[in-house]
Automatic annotation (TrEMBL):
This is Cbb3-type cytochrome oxidase assembly protein CcoS. PANTHER family: FIXS PROTEIN. The keyword Hydrolase does not apply. It comes from the Bacteria.
Length: 60
């Protein structure tokens, strides 16, 4: 039964270590996306579907 207390303590310690590593990574900008904004300019936006676009399709 004592092993359960040890395992719970070790697992909580491991969880705290991983949480600390995650917080450190977020604060240091490891998850910042520097590539996508420069690439996003190259892609065309789709035209939003509106009533005007539907009328154009029906007349042609």
């Amino acid at each position: 039964m004592n092993i359960f207390y040890l395992l719970i303590g070790v697992s909580l310690l491991a969880a705290l270590i991983f949480l600390g590593a995650f917080i450190w990574a977020v604060r240091n900008g490891q998850f910042d996306d520097n590539e996508t904004p420069s690439i996003r300019v190259l892609f065309d936006d789709d035209e939003p579907e509106t009533e005007i676009n539907e009328e154009k399709k029906q007349t042609t």
